[in-house]
Amino acid sequence: MLDPQALIESLGTLAVLGVAAILFTETATILGSFLPGDSLIFILGIALSTTISFPIWLALPIIILSAIAGSQVGFWFGTRVGPALFKKRTRNWFFNEDTILRAQKVIDRYGPRAIVLARFIPVLRALVPMLVGMIGMDAKKYLRYNIIGGLLWGGVLLLLGYGLGTIPAVRENLEAWVIGFVVVSSLPFPIEILRDYLKRRKEKLSS
Fold first, then answer.
1. Res. 195 pLDDT band, cuts 50 70 90
2. Single pTM value for the model
3. What's the domain range around 96?
């Protein structure tokens, strides 16, 4: 497993560009879905406030744009290449009709906000852009929610790390804070699922 802290320390002043490249890869391809984007952004923010001499005002747009661009590539892949792969490999474990139908149901149930929420789940942030492209979501609509997701995931998490990095207790217990941060950052989607379940249950009981 990739160690975010060791990677950022090894990259030094090139850490911002290195993390940006990793975020792009993670969100653009399924093969990058194992990469620890959440913790990389958070630790990079801490490093920018403590050890790395790189302006936060410049790091912020680089990180946000890399996250947005990666997801756009994933969406493009789903739009252009996905249907062809689906036709040729209908019996494949992933490219099959059931997968497309499940993706359609998720989007129908949670709406475009699923694009934003998926940012905070490691595998989903790589899969959702491609699946959304495969089911034919409008490109302008996807771009709008992709930008919102990129700002929240890349921008807010980087600034959060940057702000917390000035606190001695965070720097001295970095590993515990990173673990806690990853757990908390993964909660939006499960909370949304629970909220939707409770809403549907209430509607069912009242009908």
1. low
2. 0.78
3. 4-206
